[in-house]
Design goal:
With 438 residues, the protein is an alpha+beta fold. Helices cover 25% and strands 26% of the residues. α6 packs antiparallel against α7.
């Protein structure tokens, strides 16, 4: 994180807020305002109630994620999947064990920035923390994101989504009547952040994925209260355990879809130790913002790309913008009906998220929904190029079936009439610098 912050400063991609801000609503409001007008990262130097600066809007675009991985913008999915495959050969603990740093500083949970983001949130939430844990039986490590509601210096209530590995790990430990050791990591290296958002096969290690991105083993030291290994880069470390057979009310909280998730009885994380690097920077993530959605979008796109590339030809790139619920697929048409085959395959590419799938030709910018819809509305009939599949289950957390069903749009041109749909071009338009004229 520290190296990335210095890079952002050098690249003039870091905005500094020197004015003191209130962590209840004001910090989130300023973050959202900045995100509405700029894609730059923001650093709040002074936050009421804490001595720690807060950084936000760090992982806010696919371009930045590509930069972290060393990928070209149109090769993200391919690079992600290559790293995924490479990580499978690195073993379960591809880390470099080092001595515990002597300059770590003990503190309390209440010393951290306690940020309340939305008007109906039940209280302050930890939104960017990565949970580190191990499978109770196999010892395979896991990194994953779970929101945490601050209760006290010794208690955080967390929601473990049923589709996450940590949900299964905790269930195994709970069946044995045991707590599961876990650590909240805040402000670690970018490789850890990306890895925590990865969807890997069962018994695969997110730490191995981080090592694959980093191109070297992740430096780690031993935790105080467990046999877990703490990544050295973490700015803030919260050691604890998830208690067995204990559920307490958590929520409401403003989630990534833009709505509130109501109160539910969720897991309790007992805090045992909190410590930081000297002069730590706290990472705040505004749920539903580009920083939140960009990683989710990227991993869904990469998973769908892997699936489609195995079953149909001509897949070039995939984007899930502006919402992760819709997926746009760029192809090189190879035969009549190609796009419809891609749509059918895409519906099964990710059962949680590929709710609306659109297929476009290679000359369409899949990150610009205006251009995508232009292609759909101008390259053929809307009635015969629309595919509706009813009563298909969707997002796993959907008791009212709001996300059931699938919609597919073929926005490609008729295969035999490619010459009629050549996009018009003004010669030299891409090279114009308006400062030379205005």
């Amino acid at each position: 994180m520290r190296e990335l912050i210095e890079q952002l400063k050098t690249q003039n991609e870091l905005l500094i807020v020197s004015k003191e801000v209130n962590p209840k609503y004001e910090l989130a409001a300023v973050t959202k305002a900045i995100q509405g007008s700029s894609n730059k990262t923001v650093l709040f130097e002074r936050v009421s109630g804490t001595g720690m600066p807060v950084i936000s809007n760090v992982y806010n675009s696919r371009q930045r994620l590509c930069s972290i991985m060393g990928s070209e913008p149109d090769q993200f999915c391919e690079t992600w999947n290559h790293l995924h495959d490479h990580s499978q050969s690195l073993g379960h603990e591809p880390v470099n064990i080092i001595d515990r740093p002597p300059d770590l500083i003990d503190c309390k949970l209440s010393d951290l920035p306690l940020i309340t983001y939305h008007s109906k949130d039940a209280g302050a939430y930890f939104t960017s923390s990565i949970f580190l844990a191990k499978h109770p039986l196999t010892g395979v490590d896991n990194l994953s994101f779970h929101r945490g509601m601050y209760i006290s210096d010794t208690e955080v209530r967390i929601r473990l989504g049923s589709s996450h590995d940590l949900f299964r790990y905790q269930a195994i430990a709970e069946k044995q009547g045991e707590a599961i050791d876990a650590i909240m990591l805040i402000g670690g290296d970018p490789e850890l952040f990306l890895s925590a958002g990865a969807t890997l096969p069962e018994n695969s290690s997110e730490m191995a994925f981080a090592s694959a991105i980093k191109k070297q083993p992740v430096p780690c030291y031993k935790a105080i209260n467990s046999d877990l290994l703490v990544p050295e880069s973490a700015e803030i470390v919260v050691e604890g355990r998830i208690l067995p057979n204990v559920r307490k009310p958590e929520g409401p909280f403003g989630e990534f879809m833009g709505y509130y998730v109501d109160v539910g009885d969720n897991n309790v994380f007992e805090v045992l130790n909190v410590y930081t690097k000297p002069s730590p920077t706290y990472h705040s993530l505004l749920c539903g913002s580009n920083e939140d959605i960009s990683l989710l979008e990227a991993r869904v796109a990469a998973r769908t790309y892997r699936h489609l590339s195995k079953v149909v030809p001509g897949i070039i790139d995939i984007a899930c913008v502006p919402s992760v619920m819709n997926t746009t697929i760029k192809i090189k048409q190879q035969y009549e009906g190609h796009a419809r085959q891609v749509l059918m395959a895409a519906f099964g590419g990710h059962l949680d998220y590929n709710k609306l799938c659109i297929v476009v030709d290679e000359d369409v910018n899949i990150f610009d929904l205006n251009e995508v819809m232009w292609a759909f509305s101008t390259r053929g009939r809307v009635d015969t190029r629309t595919m509706v599949i009813s009563d298909v289950p969707g997002f796993y957390r959907d008791e009212h079936k709001d996300h059931w069903g699938r919609l597919g749009l073929d926005a490609t041109y008729p295969f035999e009439r490619v010459a009629e749909f050549e996009k018009k071009l003004v010669p030299g338009e891409e090279d114009i610098n308006l400062e030379d004229y205005l």
